[in-house]
Amino acid sequence: MRAGATVALAAYLIGLVLAIATNSLSGPSALLGTLKSRIFAPLLTPAWLDLGYDHRFTYGLDEDADHEIELVSHGSEGEPLHLPGPIAGERAARWRRLARTIAVGGLDGDGSTVAAGVGRGGFTSLGTTDVDLRVFRLTQPERTAAADAAAEQVYAARVRRVADDVQLIRQEPRGEVAPLVRPQPRAAAEDSP
Amino acid sequence: MRFAMNRADSNSVRPTTIGETWMRFWFAPAPLRPLAVVRILTGVLGLLLAWSYADDLQAWFGPAGMIPDDVAVAWRPPWGASLYDAATTSASVMALFAATLLAFTCLLVGFGSRLAAVAAAVLWASLLHRGPMLAGPADDCLAVLLWCLAAGPCGGDLSLDRTRAARGGRVPPATSAWAGIPLGLLQVHASAITLAALLAQLKGDAWWNGTAAWWLASRAGAIDLRGGYQGSEYLMNLVTHAIVAFEILFAVGIWFVVTRRTVARIALVAWPVIGLLAGEPLWGLAMAIFAVPLADLT
Lengths: 193, 298
Known about the structure:
The complex is a heterodimer of chains A (193) and B (298). Chain A has 6 helices and 5 strands, in the order H-H-E-E-H-H-E-E-E-H-H. Chain A has 193 residues and is of the alpha+beta class. A 5-stranded antiparallel β-sheet of chain A has the order 2-1-3-4-5, covered by helices on one side. The radius of gyration of chain A is 24 Å and the shape is extended. Chain B is 66% helix and 1% strand. Chain B is built from 14 helices and 2 strands; from the N terminus they run H-E-H-H-H-H-H-H-H-E-H-H-H-H-H-H. In chain B, strands 1-2 form a two-stranded antiparallel ribbon. Mean pLDDT of chain B is 92; it is low at 1-6.
């Protein structure tokens, strides 16, 4: 009995070390990642134990600030739905994590799939099938700056149902989608035919 | 300085080989009371964290919820699985959630404790996999606590199980050779989680230049000490460095007999305070629960 427990404990401790080593923000090495995914992930992942425990809380970066979601019926002047809104505690923290996921994305991609789901879920709340979704980041000022937190829009999309499909039309900031045109020097421009 | 590989018998003979040390750490008879206290506190933490899902359960996971099955599946890691994947109606989602609350309640009162711990661990992992983007650090720690409890006789004391056994004339012993495994796992995870958090923090400049406390205070849910920090940069630096120093002290100090109990008792206060400073009070509570058996309060 103890021999079996010893083997199980030793295997788990190796899995724990690999889980921590491969789930950091830096990403896994090929060797450790392969070892973990082939041997330990089938046991650790379903149990929610394949974790890095890298609870950094803050690096003082913009993306570490609180995020909020705003949903409003497309093209209407109606009252927007703010999430988390006035609620507090762990419940509000879960909404903020959802908002941050949309804005920042994850290791495997951006948050548009999540945004589409949130927008689709908003259809019922807003009584429509066409919503505008925005995520705001409550950017905090430096300690020495005499300013209050500013809400900065970091994600915007229109989510609508067309027939049975849900479409997400992301609204990019103009600076990101406009073609970059460099003005030519005047002399060169005048010489050209 | 003596290396503490046995939680219960700090005065017993020192082990001489790695094998002896291993066997004593994991399999020496250990009292059931600390594990029972961990079980009760974990039940309370579980109910608090689960309750934070209650009001939005349908809004997130219902048939027309904001986190549809396909999004959750796409977002979770390979091998991730959830019982909620089979819950396609509002009633079935609610039934699974009610089962989770029931499991935490059974854990709290010690009714079918071992089974309740396993059920709570499975149901909790399922809930987290159903919406991985909603999970936070306290959720991670709760999952670990539950699996640790499931690994040993967590209902041997301060429980309905013990009361029922006593009424039947079978009074359980106060110690168990199998209590060492969950207690050892708690100690290992307490140190590992702290070290992992510490390493992650020290990758960022804010934890070196002493400004992390300012950014923590700016988060919703955290104690807002920004007024104090604006008045004194040294105070902000002190709080930042104190958090890092405590984490180093805790991760290392719980492994030595001469420091373990003192460090663990400090941790019972320090972790909740850090949780409040970071805006993660339930994470602070979870970390304090890891320290309970090491504090040797009974």
